[in-house]
Amino acid sequence: MRVAVDLELCQGHGVCESEAPGVFELAKNHKVTILEGSPGENRRAEVEAAVRFCPTTALRIVEED
After folding, report:
1. 2-62 — its CATH code?
2. Are 23 and 54 in contact (CB under 8 A)?
3. What is the pLDDT of residues 6-55, one digit of tens each?
4. How far from 36 is each of 3, 17, 53, CA to CA, in Å?
5. Is residue 47 within 8 Å of residue 60, measured between CB atoms?
6. Which of 29, 32, 51, 58 has the highest CB neighbour number within 10 Å of its CB?
7. What angle is formed at CA 59 by the lines to CA 16 and CA 42, rounded to 5 degrees?
């Protein structure tokens, strides 16, 4: 899996960072930074929660073959 973000939609709420610390970080410009673009399956649940709870739907998971 790969994590993608639409920075046009991101408003810097920080929900992603609280759901999946180490994968996401809120930068000083109040936009999300992806720290781990292809997290392992062991982090899937927390990444899915970050995507699900993002208030602006700026995040998505891209499944890789």
Report:
1. 3.30.70.20
2. no
3. 999 999 999 999 999 999 999 888 899 999 999 999 999 999 999 999 99
4. 8, 12, 19
5. no
6. 32
7. 65
